[in-house]
Design goal:
4% strand, 3 helices, 37% helix, Histone, subunit A, mainly alpha
Length: 98
């Protein structure tokens, strides 16, 4: 198991752009250690004779609605709520993400 110390908590906080007090570092160190201990307990659970399931609920018999093509909004109506400068040709203009 990974040893959780102040240095690791501060590194993770730095990666997350968080400025933690000494007390917060202590609290998060304890919480992270607790989570990792719990994960270790889960790793040790015997699941050899457990039946695999893909969903928590039985969806057998459940049906999704039929996928059918329907009329869409007209282009002029799509951009009615676009703020000034947010429409470029037939597209919404957004700020660069990266």
């Amino acid at each position: 198991m990974v040893k959780i110390d102040d240095k690791l908590v501060k590194k993770i906080a730095d990666l997350a752009k968080l400025d933690l007090s000494k007390e917060e570092v202590r609290i998060y160190k304890e919480q992270m250690a607790s989570v990792l201990e719990y994960i270790d307990k889960i790793k040790n659970v015997d699941v050899q004779n457990t039946e695999y399931i893909s969903h928590l609920f039985d969806y057998e018999g459940e049906r999704l609605r039929e996928d059918k093509s329907e009329a869409s909004l007209e282009d002029k109506n799509v951009f009615l709520n676009a703020t000034e400068g947010r429409k470029k040709d037939d597209f919404f203009a957004i700020s660069k993400v990266l």
